[in-house]
Amino acid sequence: MKKSVLKIFSCGLLATLLFNSSVVFATEAKNENAIQMMMESEANNSPENVFNFSGEWVESSVETTTKRLYGGNNTGRYETAVAISKEKWANGSDTIVLVTGMDYPDALSATPLAAKHSAPILLTENKKLPQSVKAEIKRLSASNAIIVGGNGAVSKEVETELKAMGVATRRIDGKDRYNTAVNIAKEIGTENGIAVAYGLNYADALSIAPVAGKLSMPIILTPSNYMNEDVKKFIASTEINETVIVGGVGAISYEVASAFPNPMRIGGQNRFETNVNVLSIFGNWLNYDEVYVATGMNYPDALSGSAAAAMTGSPLILANAYEIDDNTTIYANFLRAKKVYGLGGQAILSNEVLSYIGEAAQYFDIQNIKSKPVTINKNQFAILPSAVFVLPDGKTINQALPKIVEIQWQTEDLVIDTSIAGEKIYTGVVKGHDINDDKYKVELKVIVK
């Protein structure tokens, strides 16, 4: 990852998402007053220029729809992965990535590998392929399977079953989860940097997985308080420009984080805040037409969904069965999605939570966007944002949450030239629309002084 890209991260949405409590839906009641109070408090303490854009919010003919992808009660994780594969790989896939459905260590680094091969992630039992997975491999017409993990995770018997189906197999494994992650990283490459997550839990790795897949960043796992020897050798022998550390100092200590090249930490007070902070800071690389929602309290559904999310660069939001962290609530309100996918059954992701996020992420047709001038210091690094906050005309952040709108700027170089003082007008268009349609044209005045 180029150094200039890392600087963009600090310009993300993180400053507007500094909340740490929960909305509980056990009785289907939403603590909206508390959220509103926090919104107003944050707005009163935010710089005036955080929200530079406003526009007309028009009810769209495009209705935000929610769809649950899930399996049965007894073998749900395997069939949920199959349902995701059927939905997002409807036309088949030459390659699948196969991981154990029984534990998470080897699987945590699989998403960027799946993204590299445009492949779904399917789950298997240790000793045999579930029938639903077999049927899906046939439907996909897959001819190659990449098995992640050793024989203790995915046995040779499973490998034999695949070969009997006419599927060529190869295995990426290691002596432990850290070595497996390193071996996957060697295949993906480190040109775009690496992501580092705590290896003894799954939540932080799941948060970064779709982003890492989209950006071709391998996920390296680490213990909390020391550097694994295989990881240490890999770091020493590999050119790595940037490192994204995912999780707080309780997950990855300061000493361990500092041992990686050019580390930048993205954390939070809990897994849900970390999830939102990851999505916010990498907002410039996300596509908001589709949103995925999965439980943050277990790994299989989010893991399978992360491969689909990586394909389209979509946010993967973590939630609890009957509870949404307030960071998540506010982030969901920023979105204007056309489709919201819920991953897994109601026992792990309730209808109330899925419906609330679907309603919060309601799609509006936003037109006639106006912007305030942006002032930048001479020689300061700056880049045109691919996604901006747009408030309803006449409203302040105290009165309404903005929506994220993706902008396509009419310039090949998104880096703003700040070497010379002066003013410049940049022209863009709301993603998906014609630059000649004035309703969707966006102009931004940049003042360098």
TrEMBL record:
Gene3D superfamilies: 3.40.50.12090. This is Cell wall binding repeat 2 family protein. Keywords: Signal. The keyword Flavoprotein does not apply. Pfam families: CW_binding_2. Residues 1-26 form the signal peptide. It comes from Clostridium argentinense CDC 2741.
